[in-house]
Amino acid sequence: MAHIPSAATSTLELLTFRQALAAANTPSREYDIEKWLYAPNFYSEYRYILGTRGKNPLICIGINPSTARPDALDNTLKSVQRIALGNGFDSFIMFNVYAQRATSPDDMEREYNPLLHRENLEAFRYVLSISEKPAIWAAWGAIIEKRPYLPGCVRDMAAVGRQYGASWYCAGAITKKGHPHHPLYLRKDEKLKPFDVEGYLNTL
Q1: Sheet of 57-62: strands edge to edge?
Q2: pLDDT tens digits for range 19-78
Q3: What digits encode the pLDDT tens for the residues 164-199?
Q4: Closest Cα partner for 97 from 58, 59, 131?
Q5: Cα dist. 76→36, 97, 119, 187, 204 in Å?
Q6: Running DSSP on this structure, what letter comes out for residue 87?
Q7: What is the model's pLDDT at position 20?
Q8: Most buried residue, 12, 20, 43, 189, by CB count within 10 Å?
Q9: Closest CA to 35 of 17, 57, 60, 52
């Protein structure tokens, strides 16, 4: 199943992240909230976070969410979970540079929604607060070139990461332009390595 955005996110009534988190912590008939963290907790045009609950999560950052949901991970999320567990983490959280759901990044909106970005940063602060030593896996690939607003979103995330003392990692080969590898097509036993996000941002 592919997801093509039905409308610009600026036309939607967005839940704030805190509203979405409160709902995600409420028992659901759809999935086990003791295992999954899913905000918003229903399928929509945007998604702040999707992952498993634990004390030491690996926070993976892609570009934008697709169709994955609890108990129905796509191949990207299956790879993220495998790499997280293989590197000693007890859980994973899939996060995205931009929260609009679209299977193809070519379908992302041309103009970014500052309200959606603001709430996405609130979600980022929350996932960083879960761990004593937050670990961020940069995994957006060359897709960051799809929209001019995406590098600015990453810069904002790097600033938040500094506030929480986060460490940045990548997995697999870096592209010629310095972009970190996307989670797909990595070896099952791929190990994380340090990623200089500040140096990378200076090249964008």
Answers
A1: 36-39, 49-52, 91-96, 57-62, 135-138, 167-170, 193-194
A2: 999 999 999 999 999 999 999 999 999 999 999 999 999 999 999 999 999 999 999 999
A3: 999 999 999 999 999 999 998 898 899 999 999 999
A4: 59
A5: 17, 15, 24, 13, 25
A6: T
A7: 98
A8: 20
A9: 52
